[in-house]
Amino acid sequence: MKTTEIRIVVHEYENIGELPEADQVLLQEARRVTSMAYAPYSGFHVGAAVLLGNGTIVTGNNQENSAYPSGLCAERVAMFYANANYPDSEIKSIAISAAKDGILVSETVKPCGGCRQALAETEMRFETPIRIILDGQHSIMVLHGVESLLPLSFSKKYL
Question: With 2 labelled, which of 39, 92, 139, 144 sits at a CA distance of 20 to 30 A?
């Protein structure tokens, strides 16, 4: 038997002011669009902002549906819009924020498995790691590349 250890590096910041300016702008956009989420069932409002290689910022928020599987997460709304409207521009960074009752969630918000796989696919598509900024009241986490969120992910090399 062989044991392999997978190490993940996470940079943790206490507040938005500690982030580089470009990350601050992106995270402010993610926070802003949480208020526009359609979340009448969970009340959990998520916003995502994506920085493209061409400098454009695209936003998205979660869109719930009474038939739960028919809704879509903020991360995928933003990424799919970016990929549909800017198909030749890679995603450089994504910032994700969440609020409940208009208040930023205390724990750092993390993407679901489906969003992690969609991020991985986007990274593979452009062969560029995505900077991932995860927001929370008590800390902000920054990761370099989807491998930090989804080690041992499924990819096209297995097809």
Answer: 144
Could you give the domains of the chain? 20-153 (3.40.140.10)
Active-site residue among 75, 90, 127, 147? 75
75 is catalytic: yes
Kindly give the confidence (pLDDT) of every residue in the chain, 159 residues in length, as a single tens digit, with 9 standing for 90 and above.
999 999 999 999 999 999 999 999 999 999 999 999 999 999 999 999 999 999 999 999 999 999 988 899 999 999 999 999 999 999 999 999 999 999 999 999 999 999 999 999 999 999 999 999 999 999 999 999 999 998 888 777 777
